[in-house]
Batch of 2 targets.
Target 1
Amino acid sequence: MIVPGTLYLIPNTLGAMYTADALDQVIPREVQRITSGLSYFVAENAKTTRAYLKLVAMSMPLKHPLQDILIKELNVNTRSSELPSLLVPLLEGTDAGLISEAGVPAVADPGADLVRLAHAKGIRVRPLVGPSSILLAVMASGLNGQSFAFNGYLPVDADNRSKRLKELEKRSRQEKQTQVFIETPYRNTALLEALASSCQADTLICVATDLSLATESIQTASAVQWKHLLKENKEPDFHKKPTVFLLLAG
């Protein structure tokens, strides 16, 4: 009887890094060791995963030549009918790594469906320690870390976005719950402007950018304070940079 391999959930960096020392600051050495020994990965993007493996190899030599490592993609374009085939090597006894474009896999990431299927097929799932932009933002915001909800992306349409923000603010006030969401980086300014204009004056808003990177920026202020900062062109340096937004209504 073949014992299935283990599906390792491998954390990635939250942005570009170019040295082994920089990688060591956010990815534990034990995680790098496990990563360096795998011959099969399911990744959101094969090209960037190869670049990540090259970075790991700077301090932790890969057990298998990079050209021999199999990387299959799992992203928003992957059909659910394709998921079983991604687990075939594991069912044949091969360990595998699931890796996202940034941060931890299966959180705000299509990998969650594969993890659920792995459990259904009796495959051991092992999450590894690494950076999560959502948790780092909650930690650093000063907002309620006892109760919070991640809401993904908000509507692109301005009216629908404003309506959604008011709904989240109402929920936050009623449940004393921090609301967390993200935006496509080039729309960061539009979202902050919507937050400042849609929320009550005393609602706290945190903007957390480039978490764990040298360019990291985290700022919490009330909606009315953000409105003044935007008017004075003192918005954060977050244009086209990965950013997490949080709000907590009083």
Target 2
Amino acid sequence: MNGTMSLNKSKDRSASLSAWARYWQAMKYAGHVILHPFDGFWDMAHEHKGSVAAATTYLALFLITRVCKLMFTNFQFINAPLQYINVFEQCASLLIPFLVLCLANWALTTLFDGKGRFRDIYIAMCYALVPYVLIQLPLIFISNIITFDEASFYYVLMSFSLIWCALLAFVGLMQVHDYGPGKTIIFLLFTVLGACVIIFLVLVFFSLLSDAAMFFTSLYREIAFRLY
């Protein structure tokens, strides 16, 4: 009995260690992806090199970096009134459009021979955010030790990180769906349009839901007033 329990505990420990090992391998794989995007995203989509856990970690780091940038960047380089910054609103303003874009891309490409699943699109887009974290997080510290006359250095690195992320997202979607460059550009434009439509429909739905709730509340009050 004791031997069986010890064996089960050993198996559980080995499985836990194996899960952590796969997680760290997926985290470290981001280094290969950002430096060799064509091979990296291809292996990610077809050999499952990345993971949802690692991708979500990088997405969380992206959101943390954005909030830290607003709060701790030198006032010479950013105009963000700290007293009005709401951390949850800032995160939601980036997270919701990000997920909607992933959903819109999946919905559209599924209809037009796209090979990527929603999982693959999500992982590729999250890994494409890695340069933002690697460059902009140190820039928060750098902004506090350089003068405004040296701002060109700051803005060049900031622009470089955004361009790098955009190129990675483009290559990632191209490899995930097995599209050519031209078709990828077309579906990126349709993805933005589709995301706008989704957001519009969600806003209309909640507006109608709010109006319906107000109507039934007013109706209940009117009935209660007449009866009592």
